Amino acid sequence: MRMVLYQTLAALVIIIVFSAASVAGSDKVLIEDAWSRASIGTSRPGVAYMKIRNTGDVAVTLKGISTDVALKPQIHRTSTNNQGVSSMAQVGEIEIVPGETVTLEPGGLHAMLMGLQRIMKEGESFFMTLAFSDGGEVAVEIPILSIAARGPES
Ligand SMILES: [Cu+2]
Question: Is the pTM above the cut of 0.85?
Fold first, then answer.
């Protein structure tokens, strides 16, 4: 009995040390000004925007996002060519150096919520989890603004 307890404690200590080391960096990430837009239905993807600020002193790398409102949330980047044609492509990992802020905003980087699981209703909110390469995760509550919203204060 006593032996089992010691083994359990030893395992706990290892896990604690491990997780403290593995989230060095992303524990200093701040998410600000998160917002999203209401959707008409669920057939088209939803979208979410935010500022991701690295307040720490080591670089962090955003690996991916997850949320229960969408089956396939992805980070996309919209770019416009010199003919004025916009297109968007999935972005891989995003490195954020110390002191830097990466902004997800209309016309640029955005969280594209593919496979919406429910209608996004104005006035409600949902949670998104950002996963970083150091093993840390940051959860953010994202308010759903009007279907015509262009920014967090509109
Ligand atoms: Cu997109």
Answer: no
